[in-house]
Design brief:
It is a single chain. Strands 3, 4, 5, 6, 7, 14 and 15 form a seven-stranded mixed beta sheet that branches. Strands 10-9-8-11-12-13 form a six-stranded parallel beta sheet, with helices on both faces. It has two domains: 2-120 and 268-321, Medium-chain alcohol dehydrogenases, catalytic domain (Quinone Oxidoreductase, Chain A, domain 1, Alpha-Beta Complex), CATH 3.90.180.10; 136-260, 3-Layer(aba) Sandwich (Rossmann fold). It has helices at 41-48, 112-132, 149-160, 172-180, 194-201, 219-224, 247-252, 270-286, 302-310, and strands spanning 2-6, 15-19, 29-39, 62-70, 82-86, 95-99, 103-105, 140-143, 164-169, 185-188, 207-212, 226-234, 257-259, 293-298, 317-321. Helix 2 (112-132) crosses helix 3 (149-160) and helix 2 packs across helix 8 (270-286). With 322 residues, the chain is an alpha/beta fold. The protein is built from nine helices and 15 strands. Strand 12 (226-234), helix 7 (247-252) and strand 13 (257-259) form a beta-alpha-beta unit.
């Protein structure tokens, strides 16, 4: 079968479209025909070697598809079922051997390509607003990259919980996308100082929480945007990893809270995974959540998808279609 393989860390050109041996449905696994594989910033971190990976490997942690075979000991699934997943390496391929405990049944009639978009980014947004910092009515949140895949979902989830969203974006088109998703205010960080604008919008108080998936370029400003005892959720590093910080700085800036979370720690049990995925896929099915597809690419064009993602040319989600 065809798959993307990384033999050495580096830029997008290290993503090679190759023939590899087809996997099998071993014990505890499902063999799945991949319908779509999600493209995420974590894939670029693994490709570059920012996150250490054994070489060679097939990237891709997220996708959807149809069950082709069922391994020993697996229950609750049938051949032909539509499934989606996050956290199973090797999704940039025509088929994947999927750990059954990472698979979620896709509701009947749901589009598999759209379901592939929902898993990693959808569950990330879900844990950020329900568990890491539970959003409540009347609060104010700053969302960086508000027109990105996670950003648009955060705008929707925060605003529907009765809180105010301040989003940062880089273009007018992205500003309109964030506003349509529920942001009350949008800051063009390419035109003005977002910290000063946040302070102005909050009458000098600052925000309750900052959701920062950008990292290096926004880290210090994110802390300076918080109110006393505010929370900085640094869940990504699209501009590079944030620099070191003296814990005393958190005291001096208002007894702040800082966390660097990951989805894996918020889907540790099958029950938690099913809860998060169920709410996200349910929102997709009933129309209360809108997933913006920025672009779909043939699997062979994975390198171009990575270039577009890293070049900030997209708003919403990217997927690869085998």
């Amino acid at each position: 079968m065809k798959a993307i393989v990384i033999h050495t860390h580096g830029g997008p050109d290290v993503l090679k479209f190759e023939d590899i041996q087809e996997p099998t449905a071993g014990p505890g696994k499902l063999l799945v025909h991949v319908a779509a594989a999600g493209v995420n910033f974590i894939d670029t971190y693994q490709r570059e070697g920012l996150y250490e990976m054994p070489l060679p490997f097939t990237p891709g942690l997220e996708g959807s598809g149809t069950v082709a075979a069922i391994g020993e000991g697996v229950t609750g699934f049938a051949v032909g079922d539509g499934v989606a997943w996050a956290g199973n390496l090797g999704s940039y391929a025509e088929k994947v051997a999927l750990a059954a405990d990472k698979a979620v049944l896709v509701p009947a009639g749901a589009d598999l390509t759209i379901s592939a978009q929902a898993m990693l980014q959808g569950m990330t947004a879900h844990y950020l607003v329900t568990s890491l910092f539970e959003i409540k009515p009347g609060q104010t949140a700053l969302v960086h990259a508000a027109a990105g895949g996670v950003g648009l979902l955060l705008c929707q989830m925060i605003s529907t919980r009765g809180a105010t969203v301040i989003g940062t974006v880089s273009t007018e088109a992205k500003a309109q996308a964030a506003l349509a998703a529920g942001a009350s205010h949008v800051i063009r960080y390419d035109q003005e100082d977002f910290v000063a604008k946040v302070r102005d919008l909050t009458e000098g108080v600052g925000v309750d929480v900052v959701y920062d998936g950008v990292g290096s370029a926004t880290f210090e400003g994110s802390m300076r945007s918080l109110k006393i005892r505010g929370m900085l959720a640094l869940f990504g590093q699209s501009s590079g990893p944030a620099g070191p910080i003296n814990p005393q700085t958190l005291n001096q800036m208002g007894s702040l809270f800082l966390t660097r979370p990951t989805l894996a720690h918020y889907t540790q049990t099958p029950e938690e995974l099913q809860w998060r995925a169920g709410e996200v896929l349910g929102g997709l099915a009933n129309g209360t959540l809108n997933f913006a597809l920025s672009g779909s690419y043939p699997l062979a064009d994975a390198a171009q998808a990575h270039r577009d993602l890293e070049g900030r040319k997209t708003s919403g989600k990217l997927v690869l279609i085998p």
